[in-house]
Structures are given as C-alpha cells and as structure tokens.
Amino acid sequence: MFQRYIPNPTSCKRNRRQFLWEVGGGFAGLALTDLLTQDGFFNQILAAEKHKNKEEYLLAEKAPHFQVKAKHAVFLFMNGGPSQVDTFDPKPALTKFNGTAYQGKAAVGSNNRPIGHLMQSPFPFQNYGESGLPISSLFPHTAKFADDLCVIRSMHTDTAAHASGCLQMNTGNVTIGKPSLGSWLSYGLGTSNQSLPSFVVMTDPRGGPISGPSNWTAGYMPAPYQGTLFRSSGAPLLDLATPSQIDNKTQRHSLDLLQTLNQEHLKSHPEESELLGRINAYELAYRMQTTATEVVDINQENKKTQEMYGLNNPITADFGRKCLITRRLLENGVRFIQLYSGGGHIEDTWDGHGDCITNHKLHASETDQPIAALISDLKRTGLWDETLLIWGGEFGRTPTSEGIGKPGRDHDWHGFSMWLAGAGVKGGQAVGATDELGFKAVQDHCHVSDLHATILHLMGLDHTKLTFFYQGLDQRLTGVRGQVVKKVLA
To answer: Does the first or last residue of the chain, that is N or C, have fewer Cβ atoms within 10 Å of its Cβ?
Structure first.
C-alpha cells in the first residue's frame, strides 16, 4: 500500500498547516457546528454523502423558487464589446456633430478620456416590427424579430479592460475565482439530462476570451458546476470516441477500476472538489460518447435547415453550426449554453479600435443570420416558450473615433446595449437610455448585477436567496447589490 507523502510532518503525521487547521477548527467548530446545523448545511452534506453518485446528486434537477416559463438560457456573447451607437442605440446628434472635437467631460475610453472626434454611425437605423424598435443595418435578419427583443440601452459595468469586463459579465466580479452565471444556474436548477453537461460553452475558432476558462469556472463551488467546453465541428470533445481496439466491456472495467482508486483517494481529500469533478468527468464522458456525439451530429438535419443557419456560407458556417448545435442541446435538456463570437484579441473580436466599420460588418455578418435562424427554429420547435436568449458583450464603445482618419472606437463601460428575448421577456421595447451622444446611461441604469438578478428571476430564482456558503458568508452572484429590472418582464 502506498503511503501518502506529507512534507514537514509533525509527530501526529500532519504537516504544520494541517495541524494548525485541525486544532483551530476544533475550538471554533463548537460554535460553528451549531450555527450550520440550524442552517441545514450538514443535512445537505449528509444527503450528498449517502447518495450513490455524488455528482448526480449535485446536478439533480431542482424546483425553482417560483414558477416561470424559462427552463434554459443561451448567452450569445459578443466578445470584444459591440458599439451601442452602431447597433441598437441610434443617436441623431452624432450625425449633427459628426467630425467635431468632443468638448464634454465624459471620462471614458481605455485611458479614461474620450479620444478623437465625434463619429456618426455608418450603419443607418430603421424601425422594425409593430413596435417600431430601431435596429441598425448590421442586423437585417435579427431585425425581423424586433417585436421579440427587449433592448436594455442603459447597461454599465465597473471596468474598461476586456479581461475583467468579461469576468464581470460572466461571474459578477472583476477578479478570477468566482462562479459563473452558468454555474449558478446549474447549482440552483440542476439538469434534466445526466448524459450531457448542464453548462456548455462554445468558443470562437480564433480563440477564447482573454481571461480564458475563468469565464466558465465553478469558482468556489464544487467542480461539477463548471462549464464544459464543446467544439463546434468534429467530435464535441477531444478523444471522446473509444479507440476501435477497445470494446465497451473492457472500457467499463477500466473506468470502474479508475473510479474505485479515485474514490479511495477522495476519502483522504474530501475537501478537493476538483477531484470530484475529475471523477465525474470520466463518467460523464463515458455517458456522452453516445449522447453527445448524436447531439452534435448536424448531418441529421436536412439541407434546408443547414442552409437556414448559414452552414453553406464560409462567413456564417462556424457560428451557424454553434447555433444549430445549441438548438439540439436545448432539445436534450441542457440548462445553459454560451456561444462566443470573436476570439483572441483586437480585430479578431468586436474590439474595433482601428476600424470599427470593417470590424462590425465582419462580426455582424458572421452572427446575424445564425441568430435569426436559432430564434426561428426555437419558435418552430416550441422551445421558444421555455428558452431565454441574452445578447451582448463585456461593454460598449465610445461615440468618438480613435482619431482623424481612424474610424475605430474605444471602450465605453458607462453606457451600452444588450438585449434579452424569449421566455418571460416583454419584447418590442427599449429599456433605459444613454445621453444625447451615447456616452453614459442616464435613465433606468442597469448595472451588470441588475442584469444578473433579472436573468435569475426569469429562470425562477430569487438572486437574494440563491446563495452558496463560502468563507463564512452566504455568497451571491449579485454580491450585495442587484435589482430585478421589472420593465423587462412580460
């Protein structure tokens, strides 16, 4: 039998850190145990310990705090920061003052100051649908569903940097180590299909967001709540297929042995949720070998459907595949799916510093038709009534250019646009407003924490009651702030 290696052991076979932890815990634990017992904490732990498969217990489907229509959510993440004044927030004043030096005092941009001259949008706006919602020419396909969109024009965040901006939009915090939105939904609602992940992420082939996997981490929650990265082409996960020389019986025996060894190791490391997550990954991968492969096999879709998503066009093919796979994942009960448009840095994302015109034309062209196809397909299949869609990036862009002859726009986190649609959302409207030029939110301010509170509400969860006990506190996705934006609700 192998002996566990303990660096700098004491006479009680514990290292100094373990010894101090256990002794200290013994004194403080007397009072803490009573408090946690009253809170029902140990009841949850014991239930998980007694359950044959701890992972299935953690992800077992749970009832929402209150009944709502939405059962699934899809976050269409426009990585890099789309410009609000070129997409969903028309500003006639920019046309009037186009090319003039900005004389105001709005402290925005990467250097906390507006750069260059005021620049009108090169993309004309038009009113669509019975609601007359204004949408720019960048989105002719999505515009057909204007009456389903609720555009929040008064979004604002706390940071001008891409990495921290993505983190805040995904986890509610500008620092790494916090659970992501998908993790909170998996924790609060579980999953209806144990053969697929509850939380799936599909990134752009040009790369992921700058802050990487921290955007879909489970943070301080058990590792099974983290997002699972899928590829949009080929096998959804690398090495998912069983080698041809290994039959199912042999593979099952190997996994059973590995499970036994890992469980023995887990007994001496009960605090390591990453180990539990690794154990689950093997079992989930085994179950997914059939289920996931079938779900991502878009060859089962007819030619008309594939063309509707733009799979026959190199510009739209990648995001189209991701949107089509999304519909198939939703049909199979996946709780939360996040699709990234744009990867890597600068022009490979929506970060149009050098030339916002060319940049936004490209990325809008890649995503507009697939998103419209997804909406149309969800309506056709009946999934629309139980699916929430979220569109947006980590922040917006300034109404000023980067300089004379430089049609790029800098970062603007003080006022930008996102939209929600689908189950429980009142479409055909714009909520909130930015100032005359589009620099800052001035009406019905919506902080990221307010957006998160609203998303959780639409999914049947009270953001003040969805908590996870960590470091002596009941942690929340929204922290100590956040208000549901009631105007969004149908």
So the answer is: N
Domain regions of the chain by residue span: 16-50, 63-234+298-488, 241-295
Closest to 324 in 3D by CA, of 295, 349, 288? 295
Tokens of 487: 């105007």
The phi and psi torsions of 348 (rounded to 5 degrees) equal -75, -10
Task: Show the tokens assigned to 397.
Answer: 């862009």
CATH number of 63-234+298-488: 3.40.720.10
For residue 489, give Cα distances in angstroms to 34, 422, 428.
41, 10, 12
What's the pLDDT tens digit per position in 156-191?
A: 999 999 999 999 999 999 999 999 999 999 999 999
- What separation in angstroms does the CA of 270 have from each of 186, 228, 266, 351? 22, 23, 5, 43
Place of tokens 């299935």: 56
Radius of gyration of the chain (CA): 24
Are 79 and 204 contacting, i.e. CB atoms less than 8 angstroms apart? Answer: yes
From residue 223, alpha-carbon distances to 55, 461, 469 in Å are 10, 21, 15
Cβ 469 vs Cβ 428: under 8 Å:
no
Tokens of 312: 């026959």
Give the integer Cα–Cα distance in Å for 193 and 331: 10
**At residue 100, what is the residue type?**
T
Spatial distance between the Cα atoms of 24 and 387, rounded to a whole number of angstroms: 48
Contact 371, 141 (CB under 8 A): yes
By the 8 A CB rule, do 218 and 176 touch? no
What's the whole-model pTM score? 0.84
